[in-house]
Amino acid sequence: MTISTERAGAALRTASRQDDLRARAADLFPGGVNSPVRAFRSVGRPPLVLDRGSGPRVRDVDGRWYLDYIGSWGPAILGHAAPAVVDAVREAALCGFALGTTGPREVELGERVRAAMPSMERVRFVSSGTEAVMSAIRLARGATGRDLIVKFAGGYHGHGDSLLVEAGSGLATLAMPGSAGVTEAAARDTIVVPYNDVDAVAEVFRAHPDRVAAIIVEPVGANVGVIAPLPGFLEALRELTEANGALLIFDEVITGFRVARGGAQARYGIVPDLTTLGKIVGGGMPIGAYGGRADLMAHIAPEGGVYQAGTLSGHPLSMAAGIATLNLLTPVAYEMLEATGAALESGLRVAAAETGREVAIARVGSLLTVFFRRDLPHDAAQALDADREAYARFFGAMLDQGVLLAPSQFEAWFVSVAHGDAEVGETLAAARKAFAA
Ligand SMILES: *Cc1c(COP(=O)(O)O)cnc(C)c1O
Predict the structure, then answer these.
(1) 2: part of which helix (H) or strand (E)?
(2) In angstroms, rounded to a whole number, what is the distance separating the alpha carbons of residues 269 and 257?
(3) Whole-angstrom Cα distance, residue 49 to residue 62?
(4) Distance from the alpha carbon of residue 318 to the mean position of ligand 1, in angstroms
(5) Which of 34, 153, 258, 305 could lock 166 by a disulfide, CB 3.0 to 4.6 Å apart?
(6) What is the DSSP secondary structure assignment for residue 266, as one 8-state letter?
(7) Within a domain: 145
(8) For the segment 207-261, what is each residue's pLDDT rounded down to a tens digit?
(9) How far is the CA of 360 from the centre of ligand 1 (A)?
(10) Which residue owns the Cα nearest ligand 1 atom 5?
(11) Residue 270's domain is classified under what CATH number?
């Protein structure tokens, strides 16, 4: 009796809850996941099944905690389950969910967004970053009467058809140039040029005069790992678009409220015509937003002829989480994010040097990538040249020590205000061992 109970216990322990859920997820979902990068394929590990987040840490369903740098892929700038955000969402939920009309929280969050990013004179809330970008592109075409869109290789702007070419981490990790199912017609009006290459952009305008509706750019590249804009790059995009009657769209879905409260446009002092947001602005709830010059936004229905709608747009729970999050993103919070990012960067550099490991560390504020290559990449081709297998080994060694990094060489690590000195110390101690391994 005793023996068989013990055996049953041992059997339960070896078949962990994670194994069970993974198997059931693998049966249900393509790749076992509801978004490709969650499959952890490029790091050769089974996908984690997490059920709890608190501050800088997350827990798997077997009860193991990890220091987290995935940060919900960007939104978790306060860490997980920040009490003020939880309270705001609870309060909003008690008032009913989407009521299908304008609500007070939409107005409140919209005003905060505009105050942080004055270029967004008028705003529309949607439910994802993908939707924000698709809408901004449609608006750019509708407002200019032109068809062509210029994007940069490695730039990810959601999974809308016309921008799903040479589009960053998810595809790069799977070594796919683009997606099946995107028609030639949808891809034909998209021109792809290398990031940080002003000459290539100028050449597009020479080759296609009066045909470019917009340039869309991540003002800090964050989807093939972090790539900072070289001095003068964003300025040149502003000048070239203006000179050629095209619009400049900053896709700040990651950088908005991340690299500064006012996003990359504040950090680099450039005023785009249109901006797309997502991730942080929803405080971890589903959200997207786009906005810009009032005369352009007047083209959106019902004021104008560019149609865009959404049943759950401006959802009260997303608005509540966004407002509560922005309330906590004070100037001091950004100083902390910068300091933590800098401490991680310099500590990782020292740890790599001590172990003779050749890496280049790219960082803008609290966005960071350890590239397993000698020099900092300035475009996607250089980034993709990094040693993914070395990264996979590094990732695995960190995970085994309880530090959860971005599960791809081509994703940013997201630092939160909940990451303090103790967490940096813990990360660096693990990194010294992982670099050596
Ligand atoms: C994540 C991301 C998107 C897409 O946002 P979703 O909410 O995942 O649809 C668009 N642009 C950039 C720069 C992103 O990082």
Answers:
(1) helix 2-14
(2) 15
(3) 9
(4) 16
(5) 153
(6) H
(7) yes
(8) 999 999 999 999 999 999 999 999 999 999 999 999 999 999 999 999 999 999 9
(9) 25
(10) 129
(11) 3.40.640.10
